[in-house]
Write a structure and sequence with these properties.
The chain has about 475 residues and is an alpha/beta fold. The protein has 3 domains: about 80 residues, Udp-n-acetylmuramoylalanyl-d-glutamate--2,6- Diaminopimelate Ligase, Chain: A, domain 1 (3-Layer(aba) Sandwich); about 220 residues, Mur-like, catalytic domain (UDP-N-acetylmuramoyl-L-alanine:D-glutamate ligase), CATH 3.40.1190.10; about 140 residues, Mur ligase, C-terminal domain (Protein-Tyrosine Phosphatase, Chain A, Alpha-Beta Complex), CATH 3.90.190.20. The protein is built from 15 helices and 20 strands. It has a 9-stranded mixed beta sheet with strand order 7-8-6-9-10-11-12-13-14, with helices on both faces. Helix 4 crosses helix 10, helix 11 runs parallel beside helix 12 and helix 12 crosses helix 13. The longest helix has 14 residues. It is globular, with a radius of gyration of 24 Å. The relative contact order is 0.08. Pathway: Cell wall biogenesis; peptidoglycan biosynthesis. It comes from Microlunatus parietis. Its EC number is 6.3.2.10. GO terms for molecular function: ATP binding; UDP-N-acetylmuramoyl-tripeptide-D-alanyl-D-alanine ligase activity.
Length: about 475
């Protein structure tokens, strides 16, 4: 696109001295350190920094143009609001693409399902997909702006923290295929009407789909009543996936879990059946795999190809049940990207099912639960007490105390420690871990337990050291 075309698409104007014929040949970025040569740098007004201050560095790094909300030195397009302008630019670019757009939402599993679907669909054509969990009003348009005329499938993770969020994204770029995974308890504090409000927000994806006679497809979880209730709300054709056998649903049979926590099953579609063994840790990824399979099936892929692609798929996004095996045979499960009551329960279930010398759970705060937070953290402590754990380390302040106290009150043969932060957790753990130990590390990002993962990944046994907590007699 030219600078003039970008100005027209965004409702902005060229800053004096900007060549209207200047060509932008690469995607957009909001980080001046990560601009692509020939791309656009979007100068956002952030909470802690002003992107306009970094515009010269972005140009020096190769950006062709700056999208700004105030006057800057050329080359730049000035707009009223950079975030809204990015969305408008994404809408313009998408209108010139022939790609099938797939939107994926749900309380849990969006990122993994997106990663699996992208890897399966890559066997059928070029895929552009969301990086990590960049699924909001910034990440959504930035992903669209990475698509090219060669993109056959544009796979977009779509997050919502309130009503109208998904409607806004659908208004920017309307998916042809909409996948709703579940309605859980993530971000419950953002919804005064509880799960009913979450369901209403998630349903905005299916109500925004094209009609069936225009290719619209809603891929829905038949096992979740709040998702199943969305079928009458959409004009699109409904495709279903389930854990339970049904002749017209994509479903799994012969489900099994390996000793290292990976799910195997027989994938069934209305057209056939084929075996799958996932490389992802956690039985709950079965749901994500079924959703990805149903999506691919709805787009015409063969059942055997789908099953082979799922088996060959690898984890792409860090911090989501990511397995790290140290060279001393200590295994870390890094699930510290995010947490909510449902995902905590799933992670503990997986930890319990895995073979290990000792099972250790390091659990931190679940954020954005509002008035439900105290109850949710006490319930988590009770779940931990009933899991087959050897040690529970609760990290944080009042919420960690709730987890630890509930676990103690529930009882069981479980050692329980409460620490203030990732640094204290490392002090407790790094001298006491031994070969064969399995350590789950899970919390919302606010707890910064990814720092603990980094520290423990670099740690090695320290039998000769003195001091620090000792986790067991030997």
């Amino acid at each position: 696109m030219t600078a003039a075309a970008i100005a027209e698409a965004t409702g902005g104007h060229l800053v004096a001295g900007t060549d209207p014929l200047l060509r932008v040949t690469a995607p957009a970025s909001i980080d001046s350190r990560r601009v692509d040569p020939g791309g656009v740098f979007a100068a956002l007004l952030g909470r802690h920094t002003d992107g306009h201050h970094h515009a010269p560095a972005a140009i020096a790094a190769g950006a062709a143009l700056v999208l700004s909300s105030r006057s800057l030195a050329a080359p730049a397009v000035q707009v009223a609001d950079v975030t809204i302008a990015l969305g408008a630019l994404a809408r313009h670019v998408a209108s010139h693409l022939s790609a099938t757009v797939i939107g994926i939402t749900g309380s849990n599993g969006k990122t993994t399902t997106k990663d699996l679907a992208a890897q399966v669909l890559a066997h059928h054509g070029t895929v552009t997909a969301t990086d990590g969990s960049y699924n909001n009003e910034l990440g959504f348009p930035l992903t669209v702006l990475r698509a090219t005329t060669d993109t056959r499938y544009l796979v977009l993770e779509m997050g919502a923290r309130g009503r109208r969020h998904l409607s806004y994204l659908c208004d920017l770029v309307t998916p042809t295929v909409g996948v709703v995974l579940n309605v859980g308890t993530a971000h419950l504090g953002q919804y005064p009407d509880g799960q009913a409000g979450i369901a209403a927000a998630k349903s905005e994806l299916v109500t925004g789909l094209p009609a069936a006679d225009h290719g619209g497809v809603a891929v829905l979880n038949a096992d979740d009543p709040l998702v199943a209730a969305m079928a009458p709300q959409t004009r699109a054709r409904a495709l279903w996936w389930s854990h339970h056998p049904h002749p017209t649903h994509v479903h799994a049979r012969d489900v099994r879990l390996t000793s290292d926590g990976r799910a195997g099953f027989t994938l069934h579609t209305p057209e056939g059946a084929a075996p799958v063994t996932l490389s992802l840790t956690g039985q709950h990824h079965l749901s994500n795999a079924l959703a990805a399979a149903a999506t691919a099936h709805g787009l015409g892929l063969d059942t055997t190809l789908i099953a082979q692609a799922l088996t060959n798929a690898r984890p792409r996004s860090t911090g989501r049940m990511q397995t790290i095996v140290r060279d001393d045979d200590v295994t870390l499960i890094h699930d510290a990207y995010n947490a909510n009551p449902d995902s905590m329960a799933a992670a503990l279930t997986t930890l319990t099912a895995m073979t290990a010398r000792r099972r250790i759970a390091v659990l931190g705060e679940m954020a954005e639960l509002g008035a439900h937070a105290a109850h949710a953290h006490r319930h988590l402590g009770m779940l931990a007490a009933h899991a087959a754990l050897d040690l529970l380390v609760a990290v944080g302040d009042e919420h960690a105390a709730l987890i630890a106290d509930a676990a103690r009150t529930t009882g069981g043969n479980l050692d329980i420690l409460a620490v203030r932060d990732a640094r204290e957790a490392h002090e407790v753990l790094h001298r006491g871990l031994r070969p064969g130990d399995l350590v789950l590390i899970k919390a919302s990002r606010a707890a910064h337990l990814e720092d603990l993962v980094t520290a423990l990944s670099d740690s090695r046994p320290a039998a000769a050291e003195r001091g620090g907590a000792r986790l067991d007699p030997g």
